[in-house]
């Protein structure tokens, strides 16, 4: 039934796509990029009702004044900008390593075929936990602390994961520790990088 589970996310995306035209544009988008004050105020009124949204509008106006001389770049312009190459390379390397190492780790751990769907479900739950946890602590600790802590935690987890994979032939229970470490790695990745 994994194909039904996978298609469920497509159904949710289709519902969102159908209802999207009925929602207003984002107020920051309307004001900062389209320079449409009336549209921004109308969207705020539609989203927040008759409440007091003038403070948020004033904040957007201040942001507009600060970014007035800056050019908004599209994706191709960002890719051509040499100053962001180190960040792009780091991000691509990290994303590719995450995509390529997952299958190999599950194969190395010699997990039974019947357990793999539950492991996949656990990966999704780990991602959800990391999103919820990160959004609740990011304001308290700041991005720099979460990035540094996340990378250090990921490094420690990878050392433990490698050790458990090397010893999984000798100790059967270490296979399941490997799966738990993968979940923890995903949570550390979601909280930090």
UniProtKB/TrEMBL annotation:
Keywords, ordered alphabetically: Membrane, Signal, Transmembrane, Transmembrane helix
Alphabetical list of Pfam families matching this protein: Sugar_tr (PF00083)
Coiled coil regions in record: none
Superkingdom in the source lineage: Eukaryota
Membrane topology: Multi-pass membrane protein
Keyword Mitochondrion: no
TM spans (from-to): 115-138, 144-161, 173-192
Protein's GO biological process: D-glucose import; dehydroascorbic acid transport
Intracellular or extracellular location(s): Membrane
Major facilitator superfamily (MFS) profile domain mapped to chain residues: 1-193
A molecular function (GO) term: D-glucose transmembrane transporter activity
Signal peptide: 1-17
An annotated GO cellular component: plasma membrane
Keyword Cell cycle attached: no
Protein name as catalogued: GTR9 protein
Native source species: Rhipidura dahli
Lineage: Eukaryota, Metazoa, Chordata, Craniata, Vertebrata
